[in-house]
Specification:
By secondary structure, the protein is α+β, with helices and mostly antiparallel strands. The protein folds into two domains: 32-157, Beta Barrel (OB fold (Dihydrolipoamide Acetyltransferase, E2P)), CATH 2.40.50; 160-249, Immunoglobulin-like, CATH 2.60.40. 21% of the residues lie in helices and 31% in strands. The protein contains four helices and 15 strands. The protein has a five-stranded mixed β-barrel with strand order 1-2-3-6-5. It has a four-stranded antiparallel sheet with strand order 12-11-14-15, with no helix packed on it. The protein has a three-stranded antiparallel sheet with strand order 9-10-13, with no helix packed on it. Helix 3 runs parallel beside helix 4. The radius of gyration is 22 Å and the shape is elongated. The relative contact order is 0.12.
């Protein structure tokens, strides 16, 4: 009888396993247990991309740090995020993968550790990055928690703008499906906004034009920028201080 029950249970599992996968959102790959791999950090490219030589190898490989997005080169805090990693050059670090191995640029997607330090998390805690492409990752809650902490402390990219127009500019609408956002100057004076820029959670950036008093400015893009399922909207002044932040999720 016990043998027959086992056979029936296995048969049931084999029939309904695909549906169970769909229901839980998990796959065999996402359930794999990966181990940390030692490597020498040879070069820091920017705050979220490094070059390493894996143990036993001789050629450099590119590593894209998982769950974070730091400012692009020449942007405010780009140097700070890069320099936070340069102290680990020529040292042994440890890399840990998640459910995806490489990105479209053939870079390995990894968490980066030095001794007991979780460097992806530290960069977020320092305010040098926003959480990025984190859904379903093993350390999703940790990464989001670090971003929230930095935002509350208003450090790094979360430092509030003191510009005279910072309280004037409001986000009227963000239409992700139409790749359009609308800003308004709610004050009684014009705002020049030279050097001010809007960006998404990734690297898409828009520089603003002057907005006259009580007027609106509509900005649209012909390329895909704002993810329909969820994204982040940042508005920074000319020195990289935060004016507006908005995030949305279709759920």
């Amino acid at each position: 009888m016990i043998f027959l029950l086992i056979i029936l249970a296995l048969g049931f599992f084999s029939i309904f396993y695909p549906q169970l996968q769909e229901f839980t959102g998990q796959t065999i790959e996402s359930l794999d247990n990966y181990e940390k791999e030692p490597a020498i950090l040879t070069r820091v490219i920017d705050g979220d991309t490094i070059k390493v030589i894996m143990q036993g190898e001789s050629e450099e490989e590119s590593i894209r740090m998982l769950g974070i997005n730091t400012p692009e080169k020449k942007m405010p805090y780009a140097n700070a995020s890069r320099d936070s990693l340069k102290q680990f050059e020529n040292k042994t670090i440890y890399l840990l993968r998640d459910k995806e191995d490489i990105d479209k640029y053939n870079r390995k997607l990894r968490y980066v550790f030095y001794e007991s330090r979780f460097l992806n998390l530290e960069i977020l805690e320092s305010g040098f990055a926003n959480a990025y492409y984190f859904e379903g990752l093993k350390y999703e809650k940790n990464l989001l928690g670090a971003e929230v902490q930095a935002r509350k402390l208003e450090i790094g990219i979360w430092t509030s703008s003191q510009d005279i127009c910072a309280d004037c500019i409001v986000l009227v609408d963000l239409q992700a499906t139409n790749e359009t956002f609308i800003l308004k100057n709610s004050c009684d004076f014009d705002c020049e906004l030279e050097g001010w820029f809007v960006k998404d959670a990734g690297r898409n950036t828009f520089y603003l034009k002057p907005i006259q008093a009580k007027q609106e400015q509509t900005t649209s893009s012909e390329k895909d920028v704002w993810n329909n399922y969820g994204d982040q909207f940042f508005l920074f002044d000319k020195v990289g201080k935060l004016v507006l932040y908005f995030d949305y999720n279709s759920n």
